[in-house]
Specification:
159 residues; mainly alpha; 8 helices
């Protein structure tokens, strides 16, 4: 497991615990630190896990509105705690974290959903994030502008 994938796993587990226990103010940082010590003591990129969890917490209202907009048939509280927090991570990385390429954000969220969610979690997360990505592309969002395949010019082809 890569360092970044493990860091995302720690962030997801921390968000899960925080959400499960009522999203208590100032508790997520403590939960994340506990999980880093207990579950990934040798993780080289601990700051990535901390920053990811904190970024989701800081932007949760906006992220949750996005979930509600792209999964209107699923009220937020009816989405499983795992799927809800995997979506929060995926949406944060896809739309707000400029350092993470969109396709990496989507793929990592799908992998988390498959590992920790139910049988349909991967497809559900893929559907929601895929729809967001398509809308971002249609709106020429700067984050996806560089993600599109480059058109090959004739002069680029060597004979």
């Amino acid at each position: 497991m890569s360092n970044r994938h493990l860091a995302r796993t720690i962030a997801m587990q921390s968000l899960y615990e925080w959400d499960f226990h009522g999203k208590e103010d100032n508790a997520l940082g403590r939960i994340t630190e506990k999980n880093l010590v207990n579950l990934a003591p040798g993780l080289a990129d601990q700051d990535f896990a901390r920053n990811l969890a904190a970024g989701v917490e800081k932007n949760r209202a906006e992220i949750d509105k996005t979930i509600e907009g792209y999964a209107p048939e699923w009220p937020l509280e009816q989405i499983t705690v795992v799927d809800r927090n995997v979506l929060r991570i995926g949406i944060y990385e896809l739309t707000l974290d400029t350092a993470i390429p969109p396709k990496v954000a989507i793929n990592e969220a799908i992998e988390l959903a498959k590992s920790f969610g139910g049988g349909a979690s991967g497809k559900f997360v893929n559907g929601v994030l895929g729809s967001i990505y398509k809308d971002m592309a249609a709106q020429n969002h700067p984050k996806v502008a560089n993600d599109a395949p480059r058109k090959v010019e004739q002069k680029d082809v060597k004979e």
